[in-house]
Amino acid sequence: MHTVILKQVSKTYHLDSVGVPALCDINLAIRPNCFTVISGPSGSGKTTLLNLIGCIDRPDQGEVIVAGQSIRSLSDDALSDFRAHHLGFIFQNFNLLPVLTAYENVEYPLLLAKLAAAQRRERVLALLDAVGLADKANHRPGQLSGGQRQRVAIARALAPAPQLVLADEPTANLDSQTGAAIIALMRQMQRQHHVSFVFSSHDPQVQAEADDAVFIRDGRITHVERNTDLVEAGA
Ligand SMILES: Nc1ncnc2c1ncn2[C@@H]1O[C@H](COP(=O)(O)OP(=O)(O)OP(=O)(O)O)[C@@H](O)[C@H]1O
Ligand SMILES: [Mg+2]
């Protein structure tokens, strides 16, 4: 089963009385346990597409199916519940809560998931360790570097054991070396946690490393490159 299926999806924004078409007739299947990158020029619709896949927004037309669930049939409340249980998010500007420590930021989605205290602690410490921040658990975001903040964000995204993690330009605010390390960590976490990652990036190196690369221009998918070595390796 595909992690995400988009069928004839279109999205137009409305500014005053003017329609701004952002996505047009998108058909896309995201494979499970894969590292999928979305690439395209500025304004091509990457963020709009990620917002639809992440159930942050709804399409005007077409169908979005995530983890087997058709989004159309869910109320707004049911949709936020669905997001909290099945999806993880990593943002360009890290979006950590500034008054919380690294530990508390990673713990936060688990409080919503109502996990028992001992299990929660074990999971948060394991995730901080996995992203290389075991010794920074008590630091607040303001006391961490950009790369370290993004590591906290990766741990937070994985905390509720989602099926799918979405990241919009996760390396845009990092230097290229730190950005490459973050992509490598995302890849490692994607494999270890058997989760699908879908993220946007301009970096051709990242496109080569991904299982699938989806290219978009003017709101339409122009082509999809599937890394056949990885496909044959059992994805
Ligand atoms: N809230 C909005 N209201 C109106 N138009 C919007 C809105 N958000 C995006 N758009 C328009 O929709 C199109 C797609 O925007 P989107 O943000 O998805 O592009 P993008 O590929 O993520 O670009 P970038 O690489 O600059 O982040 C653009 O023409 C943009 O101006
Ligand atoms: Mg964008």
What does this protein look like?
The chain has 235 residues and is an alpha/beta fold. It has one domain: P-loop containing nucleotide triphosphate hydrolases (Rossmann fold, 3-Layer(aba) Sandwich), CATH 3.40.50.300. Helix content is 36%, strand content 27%. The strands form two sheets. The chain has a six-stranded mixed sheet with strand order 6-7-8-3-9-10, sandwiched between helices. It has a four-stranded antiparallel sheet with strand order 2-1-4-5, with helices on one face. β9 and β10 form a beta hairpin. α3 (102-112) packs across α4 (117-130). It is globular and about 50 Å long. The chain starts with a strand and ends with a helix. The model has no long low-confidence stretch (mean pLDDT 93).
Summed up:
The protein is of the alpha/beta class. The protein has helices at residues 46-53, 76-86, 102-112, 117-130, 146-158, 176-192, 204-209, 228-232, and strands at residues 4-15, 18-30, 35-39, 61-66, 69-70, 87-90, 164-167, 196-200, 212-217, 220-226.
CATH topology term: Rossmann fold
> How many helical stretches?
8
Shape call: globular
What's the order of the H and E elements?
Answer: EEEHEEHEHHHEHEHEEH
| Average pLDDT rating | 93
With strands numbered from the N-terminus, the spatial order across the biggest sheet is: 6-7-8-3-9-10
- Largest sheet data: 6 strands, mixed
- Uncertain runs are none
Structural class: alpha/beta
Could you state the CATH homologous superfamily? P-loop containing nucleotide triphosphate hydrolases
CATH architecture: 3-Layer(aba) Sandwich
CATH class wording: Alpha Beta
Return Rg in Å.
18 Å
How many domains, as an integer? 1
Instruction: Give the tally of β-strands.
Output: 10
Helix content: 25-40%
Straight-line N-to-C gap:
11 Å
Distinct ligands, ions and cofactors found in the model: adenosine-5'-triphosphate, magnesium ion
In terms of DSSP E residues, the strand content is 25-35%
